[in-house]
Amino acid sequence: MAREFRTVGVVGLGTMGAGIVEVFARNGLHVIAAEIDDDAVARGLSHLDTSTSRAVGRGKLTQEDADALLARITTTTSMADLADADLVVEAVPEHLELKTGVFGELDKVCHPDAVLASNTSSLSITELAVRTGRPGRLVGMHFFNPAPVQRLVELVGTVVTEPGIIDDLKAFATTLDKVPVVIGDRAGFIANALLFGYLNHAARMYEQRYASREDLDAAMRYGCGYPMGPLALLDLIGLDTAYEILETMYAESRNLMHAPVPLLKHMITAGLKGRKSGRGFYTYAGPHSSKVVPDAETPDGTVPDDVAVRDIQRVGVVGTGRMAAGIVEVFAKAGLDVVVRGRSDSKVAAALAELRKALDKGVVRGRLTEDERDAAVARVTGTTRLEDLGDVDLVVEAVVEELDVKRAVFAALDEVCKPGAILTTTTSSLPVVECAVATARPGDVIGMHFFNPAPVMKLVEVVSTVTTSPEVAATALKLCERIDKVPVSCGDRAGFIVNALLFPYLNDAVKMLEAHYATVDDIDAAMTMGCALPMGPFELLDMVGLDEALATERALYAEFRDAGFAPAPLLEHLVTAGRLGRKTGHGFRDYNVR
Ligand SMILES: NC(=O)c1ccc[n+]([C@@H]2O[C@H](COP(=O)([O-])OP(=O)(O)OC[C@H]3O[C@@H](n4cnc5c(N)ncnc54)[C@H](O)[C@@H]3O)[C@@H](O)[C@H]2O)c1
């Protein structure tokens, strides 16, 4: 018979513990919550109060239910009070010795049948288990932050876990409306093992001043649809907790991507632990507040007086592919005159027809009026002659992703475009500076990396090379605002911000699958339900195309030479076998091919 968990205990009422208590109490369970002293109990209760009041404010909980929920919680500063619990979840800070001490005490006071669980994000469950007198009944039960919101629970069994316990906990987690995934004991389990390399990488970009904190975060929100940027997420997780997780992961993987960046240590030493201390990468209204307040790093959005922004009214787009067509649509809808240049009359005609079709769709969906559509169409002219771009103020090059072709286009544009015209490329992986030096105006060349589909995706990475002039960068940023995009500034290196952060993470997911640690479905579930990402890594890889992903990963590996970036052999094999994802009907999953 499955064991029942009627009375549950939680040790530690911090960021996670308070959330876990709320999950249990919301589901009608009596919870005994233990903390270190009265002050910590008061802090924990205030977390609970804030969280339940917020739920009431948002109409997700009635005041009556909130009161009943809080009434089901008993707090204590004595472990002895956990004697009656059927299950105790430990959520104290991420230190092996501290957790060992807590479990040692629990082992003494809890009845022999009680199950002990750790909410550790990275420490070895096996190591914790064997230090108690009940190694078979100590498992991992890893909730995600914020616990009342994120549905994933990673259930971690060890080689000595008693049969049945994981199944019972799985059933129990389901009754809490959580989605359990069952895995073995490995640093970072599924979600953190994939998430923390990415977070650390973002912290490194910030440390290297590759991009500002605001731009790093905006890039992942608007380029990938993530609910939060990486630095804001590190602040939410807590920099001290994140540091410990990375330390443990590095100790196991020896992968430099997991070696915590030095800046994290400095910030923790200085007391900048994230939201909990009121300051981390961002500054908050106070400790535990989620409200970001301006500080010395907050950009004021103004262009310095000595930087003259150029006037852009007429733009050129070179290319008639998917990106070019989307960019033409964006410009035309924003009221700019557009000249689109294709290689043949038929390509130009097809691009104009596509534009018309896309705008018609917008009318049908009520996104623009017929007059607006007609005005947008009238603003666009097509040509096969590059000379017709002679009078434009800015050009976006969106031809095939081949350096020689792009260099030739830039050399030709340089010949025909008027002095002062800005030449931009929407390359996603080639060095922008290569395009710049193909011209006699390298100061006027910049990257404007739009995302696919351009009319939908808000982000544009504005990529300055070592030669780009400040005026040109300021003009490109201003233009992005005019066309209703969110621009972020970054330097000219492989992957810019988004792809450099995204693809190593996708690659890590493939490596995890290759190591048979978890299934495609469990990994996707972990990232969507544990980290609230809009798509799991395999769903995304199949959509992007495995060949495209491999090309991007190879470009990143070639530039940074970081062993952790080396493409997973499984990805190479799938590409070799022609399993490229949705477009071929087979990738990590199989699709119905019509
Ligand atoms: N922060 C996250 O996003 C996150 C997500 C999932 C799991 N985790 C894991 O959850 C655990 C807790 O992390 P957190 O972020 O909640 O930390 P936290 O620092 O916010 O909270 C830890 C709490 O434990 C209390 N505590 C310390 N020693 C204690 C003891 N001996 N007895 C009782 N209480 C004690 C502290 O007073 C504090 O309130 C860690 O193992 C962490 O890795 C964290």
Describe it for me?
With 594 residues, this protein is of the alpha/beta class. The protein contains 22 helices and 18 strands. It has helices at residues 15-26, 38-57, 63-71, 96-109, 125-130, 165-175, 191-207, 213-224, 230-237, 239-253, 262-269, 322-333, 345-364, 370-379, 403-416, 432-436, 470-482, 498-514, 520-529, 537-544, 546-560, 569-576, and strands at 7-11, 30-34, 73-76, 87-90, 115-118, 138-143, 152-156, 179-183, 283-284, 292-293, 314-318, 337-341, 380-383, 394-397, 422-425, 445-450, 459-464, 486-491. The protein has an eight-stranded mixed sheet with strand order 3-2-1-4-5-6-7-8, sandwiched between helices. It has an eight-stranded mixed sheet with strand order 13-12-11-14-15-16-17-18, sandwiched between helices. β14 (394-397), α15 (403-416) and β15 form a beta-alpha-beta unit. α18 (498-514) crosses α20. The longest helix is centred in the N-terminal third of the chain and has 20 residues, at 38-57. The protein starts with 6 loop residues before the first strand and ends in an 18-residue tail after the last helix. Residues 11-17, 34-36, 40, 91-94, 98, 102, 119-121, 142-145, 237-238, 241, 245, 276 line the site of nicotinamide-adenine-dinucleotide (NAD).
